[in-house]
UniProtKB/TrEMBL annotation:
This is Sec71. The lineage of its organism: Eukaryota, Metazoa, Ecdysozoa, Arthropoda, Hexapoda. PANTHER family: GUANYL-NUCLEOTIDE EXCHANGE FACTOR, LD29171P. It comes from Neptis soma.
Amino acid sequence: TSPQLFAEHAGLEGEQGAPEVDRVWLRGWFPLLFSLSCVVSRCKLDVRTRGLTVLFEIIKTHGDSFRPHWWRDLFNILFRIFDIMKLPEHQLEKNEWMTTTCNHA
């Protein structure tokens, strides 16, 4: 499930001992970027495209302030978006996704 994946991926179970700067990532940037990746993966074309645009605008605008270990999480989020291509089902949807959303990226 998505909340379970989110908790595992974010490592929220160890958040109490995290430095303040990492709590900004765990409570702010990570949930926002993760949610945008869900929008890009699941919504209709116009919403996916806008979500992808917002995601990359955030990265371009604020990425220079991200800590190196935050980038590992961010790359996992980005790679997750493109993992849809590994799924054998829904070939028609995958073709549409590749010719629209993927090209936009």
